[in-house]
Amino acid sequence: MIEKNYLNADQVNFLGTMQTILTKKHHIEFSELYEPPFTNFGPKAPIPLFRKEELDEALKMCKSLEVEVLQHA
């Protein structure tokens, strides 16, 4: 998504938060996107920031990274 260069600052920060959570926990679930710290982006976050398909794409990338990191840990 970032490569497509259409994200606003809140969207970039949201993805950065996803990256931080993934780095700390090595795992992230869709339901977590509706809990703190993600709710800091608004009470309905993440849907106003992203379409469901975009969130699925981001989580798919996270899952790939999970496998890669856990296999090399």
Which helices and strands, and how do they pair?
Elements (H helix, E strand, L loop, with lengths): L8 H17 L26 H21 L1
Explain what the structure shows.
The protein has 73 residues and is mainly α. It has one domain. Helices cover 52% and strands 0% of the residues. The protein is built from two helices and no strands. It is globular.
Key attributes of the depicted protein:
2 helices; mainly alpha; 73 residues
Brief overview, please?
This protein is mostly helical and 73 residues long. The protein has helices spanning 9-25, 52-72. It has one domain.
Unreliable stretches covering 5 or more consecutive residues? none
Mean pLDDT: 86
Estimated share of beta-strand residues: under 5%
How far from one another are the termini?
27 Å
